[in-house]
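tool_log.txt
---
The assistant was asked to compare two proteins side by side. It first ran the structure predictor on the initial sequence, then on the second. Raw inputs and outputs are pasted verbatim so the downstream comparison step can read them without reformatting.
(1)
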Amino acid sequence: IKNRFGIIGNSTALNHALNTAVQVAATDLTVLIVGESGVGKEVFSQIIHSLSSRKHNPFIAVNCGAIPEGTIDSELFGHEKGAFTGAVDSRKGYFETVNGGTLFMDEIGEMPLPLQASLLRAIAEGIFYPVGGTDPVTSNVRIIAATHRNLEEEIQKKNFREDLYFRLNVINIRVPALRERVEDIPMLVSFFVDQFSQKFGK
């Protein structure tokens, strides 16, 4: 798995995170991956999906912090024709297009508070409403969420719903930063030396 996904290191903290990902992959449980920016949270989501029963179905990664607040509900749940200015056609959202697969929601801590209730319902009941729609749509999507924020602190600040946090945090995987696994630095040095030696013929 490390070779397949380009993971370099053998520290206890890294191996624990990886083993947890492998164990939870066979289930359909919701997973929350936490860690600082750049530690490779999306790679862990890909590992979980690739080892799951959903591996032949779609996998889509969505950065919740990169989608404008006014359009994120349409991106996730779709919209009906005429629902808003510019909606010239009906459009399916990620929850519908990924049906049967895995939706990786990166930077979940950036999601606007008003939309969190809709996300909670979609996760808990498998039901959502497209923007401008009155008929419910059902979807079977596995959610893997990730954040660099401390969501418990965000709950205290009233920026994140506590009930949504508990829905997401069924299984928690913490990906360590490099300073927490300094024993892996020699392996990384060797890898990069080999990589650049081959590239430049030195």
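(2)
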Amino acid sequence: MILYKFKSLHNIEYVFDILQNQRLFCTKYTNLNDPFEGVFLTAIHMNVLGFPFINQKPYKVITPKKVEDLHIELEQTKVCSLSANFSDVRLWSLYADSHKGIAIAIDFSNIESKLHEVKYSAKLPEFGNTILTSPIPSEVLSKKTDHWKYEAEYRIIQDSDYYLINDRIKAVYTGQRVSSFHIELLKKITPVEIPIYITRLNTENVLIESDKLLR
């Protein structure tokens, strides 16, 4: 499975770290761009007296909660986001600095179990609210609303700051608007065994696609 990490070149030291140290940085979930990140709904079935359901017709009480309400150490919950979608113009616009950045192709073959595929739905996820039914952080953080479905996101969710990807970087793709200065810089900091491609606009299908090999 090939996934893509979109990056701006404004802080090129972060790109250098990925390419040279062969690792991905995982950030705290509160740093992610979705304001509903980590928010979920809990459901309790109550009886007419306001107690949990006991031999009476119940009604359901929905309460919004956040990952921090699960009483876990948030410092131990780190996320790295990747995408299975290379060609959507919105991904390049949002995460590759309006096409002035890059996409790094990473091969996750044989380690797919390390990934959490994000599942999308029209509403916030709903979980129970007991010791047995409360979710774990990775269950909440691998669910998002349909607004983000185009991202086709996969996540690394772990307690460490970095996830090693030794020998798994397969290519670097430059955005439509990458400057000649950054092109030359990328050629210098990208290991010689990793090819660099430019991208082009597919005007028929309104997609971004790989074009010629730069190196």
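---
observation on (2): The longest helix spans residues 12-21. The CA atoms of residues 26 and 173 lie 22 Å apart.
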